[in-house]
Design brief:
alpha/beta, Nucleotidyltransferase, domain 5, 6 helices, 18% strand, globular
Length: 198
């Protein structure tokens, strides 16, 4: 398997490790009718293997339209690449009413939560071990891994960056979703934004 570059599919290193000194916020999405863009944004981190080593990928996504608003890769699980992705999404798209994440130390850190507080965004966090609380980003991870990452091999972060840039453009602009009435995330996000403004 090693000679052929084949690897078994199995759980990878945990990316959501809580920090004992950080504040955990309550989950605010239970029973909520999420019916327009920029109502809920969510974020998560996943592990991406390279030919020699690995990287981490963080995404900021609009819950309603499934649009990937921003993303970053890093070779460490520091807070900076997560906060940078959040700041880019806010600069480009405005701000959501609520931002939902898991209880990972990157998302509970002061550097991350202060960006949300400064922009008057309510903070929501999944219950511990409840991946279904952030189900749409979990579906995104399945899609990007099984439709792209597991089908390609990357030598380094630059190759991964270039490949993901093209894939996320395809995902936002061309990939239709059955749950969005066969619209793309871009079509759903921008159509419903226009409706809301009217």
């Amino acid at each position: 398997m090693r000679l052929m570059g084949i690897e078994a599919i199995y759980p990878k290193p945990r990316t959501s490790k809580p920090h004992p000194g950080h504040r955990i916020y309550p989950y605010l999405l239970k029973g909520l009718d999420i019916n327009h863009p920029d109502m809920i944004w969510c974020s998560d981190i996943t592990y991406v293997p390279l030919r020699h080593g690995f990287m981490y990928l963080v995404v900021v996504m609009d819950w309603h339209g499934r649009k990937v608003l921003s993303w970053r890769i890093s070779n460490t699980l520091d807070t900076e690449f997560c906060a940078s992705a959040l700041e880019e999404a806010i600069a480009q798209y405005g701000r959501p009413e609520i931002f939902n994440t898991d209880q990972g130390s990157q998302f509970t850190s002061d550097a991350f939560t202060e960006v949300l507080k400064y922009n008057s965004i309510r903070i929501s966090m999944d219950g511990r071990g409840r991946f279904t609380d952030n189900i749409f980003i979990e579906r995104l991870w399945w899609t990007v891994k099984y439709h792209y990452l597991h089908l390609h091999s990357f030598d380094n972060g630059l190759e991964l960056q270039k490949g993901l840039k093209s894939w996320f453009e395809y995902y936002n602009r061309q990939r239709t979703h059955q749950s969005l009435d066969r619209m793309t995330p871009d079509e759903c996000y921008f159509k419903d934004q226009v409706k809301q403004a009217a």
